[in-house]
Amino acid sequence: MTLLELVVWLAIGFTGYQFWRIRGISEHTNHYLKQYCDTHQLQLLSIARSQTRFSFKYGKPDWHSKFNFEFSSNGEDRYSGEVELVGLRVIRTEVPPHRV
What we know:
Helix content: 25-40%
Strand content: 35-45%
Number of helices: 1
Number of strands: 4
């Protein structure tokens, strides 16, 4: 095995690991939003990742992600919110004013 082959295999492994890391962040966000909506008596309709970038926030390199989600408070209206994460840490959850 040459040095070039080793570097290629390490790059493939690192890329695969980062793919699974982003996938884990998406699953964590899904679970968090389900809990958030249950706590606030909202119906979660959909979730979509809007932005993911590599960041050095809070002293360590990790993924900085933003997700848009739609929810309903009475089953008839639809509202859009946003949640922001660094790694698995939720930084901000923003929901617009809505009917209760």
